[in-house]
Amino acid sequence: MSNERSPRRGVLLIVASPSGAGKTSLCRRLMADHGGLELSVSMTTRGIRPGEVHGRDYNFVGHDEFQRLIDEDAFLEWADVHGNRYGSPRGPVDKALAEGRDVLFDIDWQGARDVAEKCPEDAVRVFILPPSLEELRRRLVTRSQDADDVIERRVANAKGEIEHCDAFDYVLVNEDFDRSYAELAHIYHAERSRRFRNLWVGDYKAALLNEAV
After folding, report:
1. What are the structural domain ranges in the chain?
2. Core-most of 11, 41, 82, 183, by most CB within 10 Å?
3. Annotated binding-site residue? 92
4. Each residue's pLDDT tens digit, 162-187
5. Domain 10-195 has CATH 3.40.50.10610
6. Is 147 annotated as a binding residue?
C-alpha cells in the first residue's frame, strides 16, 4: 500500500519572548533547518528601507489600504508602532495552513494572544524565558543595538512580558542555545504529528484494517 502522508493541515507556530531572550535567533535556526516552515510576512504602512524587499521583509501598503483591511477584519493581529501600523494578514496564513504548509510567527505576547484568539485550533504558542534578568541585560548590552537607557527600559518591560507566559502552551528557558533549539524543534516535530492535523490518517488506518493477513 502507498506510504503517502498527505493531506495534512499546517502548524501555526507562535514564538514570543522578552527582547533579548533569543527568540529571533531560535526562529532563524528553526527555519534554516526546516524548509517547509515559512515566516509570516507582516504588512506595514511605513516606508521601505534600503535593502528591504517588498514581500520578503514586509508587505508595504498605504494607510488607506491598511485601514480598509482593518475594517474588513482581515488581520490576525495589528498594532500602531511609532506612528506606523503593522499587522499580520489572515488570508495568506489560512491558505498556507489549508495547503499543509507550516507558518512561524516571531512576535510579542500581545500579538501571540491575538493570533491565538483568531486561530484557536491551529495555534501553538511557545514562550522563551531568559535564565535571569541580569543575563538578559548582558545579552542586550553584548548585541550593541541599543543605548543604555533603552536597554534598561527593555529589562524593566521584560517583567511585564514574563507575567504572560502562563497563557502559552510551552515555556522554554534559553540558558543554552543548542539545548533550547533542540527543545523548540522537538515541539515543532511533535505538533506536526498531532493526529487532527494529519488528515490522511483515517484513510491510512482503513487501508491497514482492510489488508488481508
Report:
1. 10-195
2. 11
3. no
4. 999 999 999 999 999 999 999 999 99
5. no
6. no
